Amino acid sequence: MGPDRCGQALLQIGVNMMALPGGRHLDSVPLPGQRLHLMQVDSVQRWMEDLKLMTECECMCVLQAKPISLEEDAQGDLILAGGSGPGDPLQLLLKRGWVISTELRRIGQKLAQDRWARVHSMSVRLTCHARSMVSEYSAASRSSSQEMGQIEKLLMEKCSELSAVTERCLQVENEHILKSMKACVSETLSTLGQHFGQLLELALTREVQALVRKIDASDNIYTTESTTGNLFSLTQEGAPLCRIIAKEGGVVALFKVCRQDSFRCLYPQALRTLASICCVEEGVHQLEKVDGVLCLADILTDDSHSEATRAEAAAVVAQVTSPHLPFTQHLSSFLESMEEIVTALVKLCQEASSGEVFLLASAALANITFFDTMACEMLLQLKAIRVLLEACSDKQRVDTPYTRDQIVTILANMSVLEQCASDIIQENGVQLIMGLLSEKPRSGTPAEVAACERVQQKAAVTLARLSRDPDVAREAVRLSCMSRLIELCRSPSERNSSDAVLVACLAALRRLAGVCPEGLQDSDFQQLVQPRLVDSFLLCSNMEESFV
C-alpha cells in the first residue's frame, strides 16, 4: 500500500467521517432536520472541538532539538494533542482516531512530494498523538486485554521506527539512496496504519460490547435511553462501526427493547438506531434472525403506538427493502408479512401529520414496489393511487422533491399494470404527472437538483408506460404533455443536462406520437420521433444554448 493511500485505508474499521442525511442510512432519501456530524461542522465549531486535543508543539520541538517549521503550510497541520483528561473512552477513541488518521494521510501526501522535513516533523507529532491515545484510553477504561497490549506495543514501535528513519532521510543527499529509503518509509507508514486500524477496531469493539451488554441487562428506562442514544451516535460514524454493532449483538438488544411494553417511549429511538445499523449486510442478517420483520409489522399495524413510533418502523422497512442494497433482496421473511406492512404504510401515508412521516412511509412503499411485484397489485386494491394523488395537493405532507420522488417512483412501478391506467385517469393523475415534468429545485443544492432530475425522469417513464392506454395518451396530449416533453428534449437547462431525463422524455414522446401524431410539428417529428432513438438522443444531447 502506497503512502498516499495509507491514510485512506487505515480506518476501514475506524472512524468513517461521511455524514448521512438526517442521521439515517436511507439511500437517496434525505430527511428533514438533518443532523450535523461531529467532524463535519463549520470551521469555528471544528476549532473549538480541536482545542480540547491541542497544545503548543514547541515543547516537543525543543525536546527533539529541532527547529519549528516555518513552511507556508505549517499552520494547516494538526498540533500535538495534549491530555484531554478523564472522560468518555468512546468519544476519546473517535476524536483521537480522527486526529491520527488525518495525520497519517498528510504524512503520506508529504512523502509523495519528497518533503522530508515536513515528513519528519509530522512523524514526531504522530508518535505523540499515538502515545497520548494509548495512555488516555488505558486511563479511561482502567483495563486492557493482552491482545490490545501487544498491538499497542507494535504501534509504538512502528511510530519510533518512522521517526528514526525519517530523521536519517534528512541527512541523506544522494537521490538513489533517498529513493530506496522512501520505499522503506512508505512500508513503515503502511504497517503503522494497519496496526492503528487493528487497535482502533479492538478498542471500539470493546466499547460497543459494553454498550450492548448495558442495554441488554438494563430494566431502567433512563439508562436504556442514554445507552441507546450512545449507540445511535456510533452508527453515524459510518458502515464499519455499524458492522461492529451488528456483530456484537446490537440488533438483538434493540429488538429486545422494542418488544417490552415498559420501554414504549424508547421505541422511536431504538428503531431509528436499527435503521442506521441495517445499512450493512450484517445488520439485515441479524434482523432476520430475530424475526425483526414480524416485530416491525406488529408495530406498524398497532394503532396504539404513536405516529412517531410507526414512522420510525417505516424507516427500518425502507432501509431493509432498499433496491440500492443487493443483500436486502434475499429477505425471505419479509414476504410473509408484506400485505400487513403495505396496508399499514398506506394508512400511515393517509393519516400522516407531517412531511417527514409521509416521506418515511412513502419511501418504504416505493422500495417495496421494487422488492416484489405483488406489492403493486396490493397497492391497487388498497386504492393507494388516490391516497398518493390526494397527498400531492397537501403541502403539509408533500412539500419537497424528495417526497415527490417517492410518489412518482410508486406510480412508475404501478404503471406496468394495465388496470392502473383507469385509476390514474379517474383521479386526474395525468395532470399531476404533467406537473412533475416541470419539477424545479428551490435551493439549488446538488441533492435537491438530483432529486428533481429523478422526478422528471420517472414522470416521463410513468407517462410512457401509461400511454399504452389510448385514453391516457389522449388526455396527455390534451394537457400539452407533448409540448413539455419536446421542451425537455430540446432545452438542456430544463432537464439540468440530464441524459437520463432526455432518454425517458424521448421514449414518452414517441409513445404519444404513435397515438396522436398530429400533435407534433414536422421538425419535431423528423428530429425526435422518426430517427432511431440513439440518433435523436445524440442530436439533443449535443444541443448547446446560445448566449450571444
UniProtKB/TrEMBL annotation:
Q: Where is the Protein inscuteable homologue C-terminal domain?
A: 96-548
Report the transmembrane regions from the record. Answer: none
This chain's protein is named: Protein inscuteable homolog isoform X2
Domain named Protein inscuteable homologue LGN-binding: residues: 39-84
List the Gene3D superfamilies: Inscuteable LGN-binding domain (6.20.200.10), Leucine-rich Repeat Variant (1.25.10.10)
Which SUPFAM superfamilies is this protein grouped with? ARM repeat
